[in-house]
Amino acid sequence: MRYPIAIEPGGETHAWGVAVPDLPGCFSAGDTLDEAISNASEAMSLWIESVLDDGGDIPRPGDIANHRLNPEFEGWIWALAEVDPALLEDQVERVNISLPRRVLVRLDAKAKAAGESRSGFIAHLALLA
Predict the structure, then answer these.
(1) Does 62 lie in the same domain as 26?
(2) What is the pLDDT of residues 90-121, one digit of tens each?
(3) What is the distance between the terminal CA atoms of the chain, rounded to a whole angstrom?
């Protein structure tokens, strides 16, 4: 999925600034234009994960032509930054992993103590990391 990004031109003494109009409060920067766009994709991914973890909704990407009309971004450069669409999916997927038996015993004990299933406990740990 691609979101429009507004890029404030940088120079010798300051970085290229990036704002993502469709994701309020999502911004980034980079020392070069390429780095700014790459960093914007990372910032967007983190923004989306954070909002989903808090139970919020993710806005769909808007149209660059409409965003360009915003006087806040006058003189800025426009581009599209990519976000992995899998970030937006909550579909459960079965996976097969291999663990040493001693690790599995510990995992199951910790999951039981937390009142969670093995899968739920692993997912919870991954979201905390």
Answers:
(1) yes
(2) 778 888 999 999 999 999 999 999 999 898 88
(3) 24
Q: What is the DSSP string of 58-111?
A: PPPP--HHHHTT-GGGTT-EEEEEE--GGGG------------HHHHHHHHHHH
Q: ∠ at Cα 22 (53, 75), nearest 5°?
A: 140
CB 51 within 8 A of CB 58: yes
Same domain flag for 17 and 70:
yes
Structure confidence at residue 12 (pLDDT): 82
Sign of CA dihedral 60, 65, 68, 69: negative
pLDDT in tens, 26-79: 999 999 999 999 999 999 999 998 998 888 999 999 999 999 999 999 999 999
Residues 55 and 104 in one domain: no
DSSP state of 20: -
CATH number at residue 80: 3.30.160.250
